[in-house]
């Protein structure tokens, strides 16, 4: 990981924490935009993370997906910086990982690494290239290299950049579609 990326991440996470309330409020608008997408309407399975307090809230997305009869899949981190998507067992059935992230219990028979739609988390997104930067583990970039379905990000205003303000590397995977409050 480059020092530039590390420094950008630290600054951006501080910005996100300072604007957490605005990001939470943006969640409602972003969910409405998401529900208007053909990829959302057509999806039977949705891959989504469990958000932290300074990310776009995913609990309402999970509830909306379940209400629409979609199966919600959430990631579980695996050795060698890999991850797998498994059915969401609900808040009571999730296990907190070593990273402090609620995850589903692992059951190889239930793994679905090709959800119909994947909502990709991150801390910043570039409008011009659809580049994203995450928390630095590389889990999503590794996963996205083999994922074949549509990818969408929900970007609160504090997460949106006209162009990447961080270095783009060969292994970075661009996102198909960005939803923002303003666009």
TrEMBL record:
An example molecular function term from Gene Ontology annotations: 5-formyltetrahydrofolate cyclo-ligase activity
E.C. number: 6.3.3.2
Catalytic activity entry: (6S)-5-formyl-5,6,7,8-tetrahydrofolate + ATP = (6R)-5,10-methenyltetrahydrofolate + ADP + phosphate
Keyword Nucleotide-binding applies: yes
Membrane-spanning segments: none
Requisite cofactors: Mg(2+)
Presence of keyword Ribonucleoprotein: no
Cross-referenced Pfam families: 5-FTHF_cyc-lig
InterPro entries given in the database record: FTHF_cligase (IPR002698), FTHF_cligase-like_sf (IPR024185), NagB/RpiA_transferase-like (IPR037171)
Keywords (A to Z) from UniProt: ATP-binding, Ligase, Magnesium, Metal-binding, Nucleotide-binding
Coiled-coil zones: none
UniProt family annotation: Belongs to the 5-formyltetrahydrofolate cyclo-ligase family.
NCBIfam families recorded: MTHFS_bact (TIGR02727)
Name by which UniProt lists this protein: 5-formyltetrahydrofolate cyclo-ligase
Organism: Lacticaseibacillus baoqingensis
